[in-house]
Write a structure and sequence with these properties.
This protein is 54% helix and 9% strand. With 633 residues, the chain is α/β, with parallel strands linked by helices. A 5-stranded parallel sheet has the order 7-6-5-11-12, covered by helices on one side. Strands 1-2-4-3 form a 4-stranded antiparallel sheet. It has a 3-stranded antiparallel sheet with strand order 8-9-10.
Length: 633
């Protein structure tokens, strides 16, 4: 019962009693979305009853999302402009023909809703999902550079995410960036894109200069050997505590219209600026310290990211940007009159007055400061050019919090436009998210990624002890399983939140087995696997056997399963993970209702085994896109 080609699918649908060939609509993707099969037949029937543009009819059909409100719905005013929904709805219901696919439609406000027949759902979905397996929910046509030329090659995506500053703590925004960026990468890989994941570390500039100044005051080789990351963070916090009052005083002077040069020429200010200049000038001792800090952080982060099921193709950073390209960018900015010099006493600053160039309130952007060192913005501009020349990407996505970067990326994009690189700008996208976080309140100040993951692990172990039955099923003595569940708790909580929403950080709630949590997802997946282990799923089912999956509860589960490709397509277009998490939660909830029939030791029928195997495929596919590894003992 192959369904992987149009010829095979139409032959299969013909055997189910449907008219073939499948009615054609430009937007339909029947080989990737089974719900589109229903849309095609529904639109074809509507076209036979209402005069109008066939493609408009098709696009007027939507999926309600909630299976209890129908599988498909058509917006009546859009279907026939100027019509009265209640009148048109009644006309359509009374003239709707008998169809092997659908029950009769019903009216709900301005929408006409319809549901698949319970008898057709398992007969359609079991072979369809069985044939596609791990490809179910993927749309590899999205990877092609030129849709009219299938052999034109895969699209290239660069994703820049996580990007902690190696001089300081791992903040909540870095955690969210890591998880969201990994999801975006997984999603595009599942759609066939060639994805390069870059961690653009904060490994240059003022924070490193401050850490260097602190090391020369408080650094201890003995403490570094014992705990390199912990000691570096300790040093940073010590020197930063001394630096903050100087920063406050400098700002007070500048706000009052004074010259802050004097205060910035002594104390920690001067030591920081001097260390930055020494690094940029290539002084051996300063460069040796910087390299040591960078190497130990990359080694540490690589191990810790692996605990989150995250990996990177490249650890880059401000320090890795080519000086030649930096000089090239500066020359373009100067030759086009985009940048200008600002002299303040003996100090010289190169800047861009964006309001003068654009009329927009993007402020003044400094590209080389009064100490003569390059700024983060200048290096960012050069990094864009360098990456494009290296990767020839079709798109590059920055996953960065919308805090202090509110103007940063708009500035980057606008300056590139002023440089005459509008085509390149069109390939760039900033995916932002709310930086609001309760992490510091929950974990305390000075946290690193390892601390965060360890606290999750401890909380998860406590939750499992409180749920011994679930713990035993998930592998209560298996360290890998325990680690996977703890990671899932964190990932699920982060991925369930829309990017613009405030970042909740409640470890107790995340590690509970409440509905919709990561541990709950792992539990139901493990329970499903334990039920299926003794059985072999088969498509060779009799009509009598199919009756065991035609009940209301089983039909509702199938109604969720048919939606999965639409869910992933929406996530691909919005770059939001919350829809997939909500969908998996709904699947689990409906699955728990269906599994209730097996309580008391009853064995599943062959059709039920096929239903549960199909559900397992969808759960696995969804978990993989989210970066969640199933926890199995």
């Amino acid at each position: 019962m192959a369904t992987l080609t149009i010829t095979e699918l139409e032959a299969f649908l013909g055997r189910l009693g449907l008219k073939v060939p499948i009615p054609h609509f430009n937007a339909a993707e029947v080989l990737k979305k089974p719900l589109d099969i229903g849309r095609c037949y529904f639109a074809d029937i509507l076209n036979s009853l209402v005069d109008g543009d066939p493609n408009n009819t098709y696009t007027s059909i939507l999926s309600p999302g909630d299976v209890f409100n129908g599988d498909l719905a058509v917006i009546l005013p859009r279907l026939k402009h100027g019509s009265k929904p209640n009148v048109l709805g009644v006309e359509l219901i009374t003239t709707f023909p008998e169809c092997a696919l659908f029950n009769l439609p019903f009216l709900d406000g301005v929408q006409l809703r319809i549901m698949f027949k319970p008898q057709i759902l398992p007969r359609l979905l079991f072979p369809y999902i069985h044939d596609q397996k791990e490809m179910y929910g993927q749309d590899t046509s999205l990877r092609v550079k030129d849709i009219s030329a299938p052999d034109s090659g895969r699209k290239k995506l660069v994703v820049d995410f996580s990007s902690p500053n190696i001089a300081s703590e791992f903040q909540g925004k870095h955690l969210r960036s890591t998880i969201i960026g990994s999801f975006i990468s997984n999603l595009h890989e599942s759609m066939g894109w060639d994805v390069c994941k870059i961690n653009y570390l904060g490994d240059w500039g003022m924070p490193i200069g401050l850490l260097g100044a602190g090391w020369e005051r408080y650094g201890s080789e003995e403490k570094f050997e014992a705990d390199p990351i912990g000691h570096l963070l300790e040093v940073y916090h010590k020197v930063n505590a001394e630096f903050v009052p100087e920063v406050v005083e400098s700002k007070r002077i500048r706000d009052g219209g004074g010259d802050s040069a004097e205060i910035e020429s002594k104390g920690v200010f001067a030591e920081r600026n001097s260390f930055c200049k020494r690094i940029e000038d290539g002084e051996e001792k300063a460069i040796g310290f910087w390299k040591r800090v960078r190497d130990v952080n990359i080694e540490n982060y690589t191990k810790l990211y692996a605990r989150l099921n995250v990996s990177f193709d490249e650890y880059s950073g401000e320090s890795q940007v080519s000086p030649t390209i930096i000089a090239e960018v500066e020359e373009i900015l100067k030759s086009k009159g985009i940048s200008e010099v600002s002299e303040e006493g003996e100090s010289t600053t190169w800047l861009i007055d964006l309001k003068k160039h654009t009329g927009r309130p993007l402020g003044t952007a400094i590209i080389r400061n009064r100490a003569g060192t390059s700024t983060y913005l200048l290096r960012e501009l050069a990094a864009v050019l360098e990456r494009y020349r290296k990767y020839k990407f079709d798109k590059m996505i920055y996953v960065v919090a919308s805090d202090q970067h509110t103007t940063h990326f708009p500035r980057v994009f606008k300056i590139l436009e002023l440089m005459g690189m509008s085509d390149l700008v069109n390939k760039l996208q900033w995916v932002n998210f709310s930086e609001s976080s309760q992490m510091s309140k929950q974990l305390g100040e000075g946290h690193m990624l390892g601390d965060i993951l360890d606290q999750y692990q401890t909380a998860m172990e406590g939750s499992l002890k409180e749920n011994p039955e679930k713990s035993a099923l998930l592998g209560d003595t298996d360290e890998e399983a325990l680690a996977a569940i703890g990671t899932t708790a964190l990932l699920a909580q982060e991925l369930a939140a829309r990017r613009a929403n405030n970042h909740a950080f409640d470890i107790c709630q995340m590690t509970s087995f409440d509905e919709g949590t990561g541990p709950d997802l792992q539990y139901w997946y493990a329970k499903l696997c334990s039920i299926l282990n003794p059985y072999h799923a088969t498509l060779d089912l009799t009509d009598e056997e199919y009756t065991f999956v035609e009940g209301e509860d089983q039909s509702n589960l199938l109604r969720y399963l048919i939606q999965y490709p639409d869910i992933t397509n929406t996530a691909y277009n919005t770059l939001e993970s919350a829809g997939i998490m909500a969908y998996l939660s709904s699947v689990m909830s409906q699955l728990s209702t269906c599994l209730g029939e097996l309580e008391g030791g009853a064995s599943p029928t062959p059709a039920q085994v096929m239903l549960y195997e199909t559900t397992r495929t969808v759960l696995e596919n969804g978990m993989k896109v989210l970066g969640i590894t199933p926890a199995m003992k």
